[in-house]
């Protein structure tokens, strides 16, 4: 009997961060924050359509030096260790159009631990404070950029391979296909044009169950 081909990404090392590691990362990110001071958070993927926090203000924003890419293996939220999916990260180079949210300073201790649980479950991102351009002027926002040294990082894949991975994967938050399509829809609704993501989402929407031959 012919054996099935290995699933891409399944052999890579995988470890969830401990609560202590997440707390240490959170404290490091907020070391210069003054109690009660409002903060900005930059969203480029699911934070656009599911921020999970209340905010005082929302603006379209451009981040320079990084671009949105499906460059992170997901083994929990949109995949499993045995069949990983792909989620967005901010990879090096180019620019990215997204949104920034202004959170009231008195809400930071409430919302940031949950934000860290969501974004820093494996330590695959690097929390950084980076200037983002908006029509109302620049803001310094918390940005989760891709850590290229993390084993879950993956460089650009051929489109056929990327689509096959997305189509077959699902995790605790649902199918990977839904995640990619919802992100594309949210960007369109916000007036953000991402030609690469639009092309991928259109192919996923056309036939979400199609797999390449032999996949």
UniProtKB/TrEMBL annotation:
Q: Which UniProt keywords apply?
A: Lyase
**Cellular component, GO, one term:** cytoplasm
Q: Does the keyword Lyase apply?
A: yes
| Domain of life from the UniProt record | Bacteria
Record's Pfam families? ChaC
Q: Which residues form the signal peptide?
A: none
The GO biological-process annotations, alphabetized, read as: glutathione catabolic process
InterPro entries of this UniProt entry? ChaC, GGCT-like, GGCT-like_sf
Q: Which GO terms describe its molecular function?
A: glutathione specific gamma-glutamylcyclotransferase activity
Spell out the CDD domains in the cross-references: GGCT_like (cd06661)
Q: What class of enzyme is it?
A: lyase
* E.C. code: 4.3.2.7
Q: Gene3D superfamilies, alphabetically?
A: Gamma-glutamyl cyclotransferase-like
Q: Which SUPFAM superfamilies match?
A: Gamma-glutamyl cyclotransferase-like
Specify the protein name. Answer: glutathione-specific gamma-glutamylcyclotransferase
Species of provenance: Alcaligenes xylosoxydans xylosoxydans (Achromobacter xylosoxidans)
């Amino acid at each position: 009997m012919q054996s099935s081909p290995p699933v891409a990404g399944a052999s890579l090392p995988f470890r969830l961060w401990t609560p202590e590691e997440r707390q240490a990362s959170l404290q490091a990110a907020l070391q210069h924050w003054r109690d009660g001071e409002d903060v900005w958070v930059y969203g480029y993927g699911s934070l656009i359509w599911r921020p999970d926090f209340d905010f005082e203000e929302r603006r379209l924003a451009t981040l320079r030096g990084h671009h949105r890419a499906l460059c992170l293996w997901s083994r929990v939220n949109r995949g499993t260790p045995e069949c990983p999916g792909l989620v967005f990260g901010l990879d090096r180079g180019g620019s990215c159009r997204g949104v920034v949210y202004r959170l009231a300073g008195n809400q930071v201790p409430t919302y940031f631990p949950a934000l860290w649980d969501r974004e820093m479950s494996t330590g695959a991102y690097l929390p950084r404070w980076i200037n983002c351009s908006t029509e109302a002027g620049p803001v310094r926002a918390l940005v989760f950029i891709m850590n290229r040294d993390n084993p879950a990082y993956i460089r650009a894949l051929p489109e056929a391979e990327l689509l096959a991975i997305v189509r077959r994967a699902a995790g605790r938050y649902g199918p990977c296909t839904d995640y990619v399509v919802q992100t594309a829809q949210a960007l369109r609704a916000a007036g953000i044009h991402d030609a690469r993501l639009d092309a991928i989402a259109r192919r996923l929407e056309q036939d979400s169950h199609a797999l390449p031959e032999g996949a």
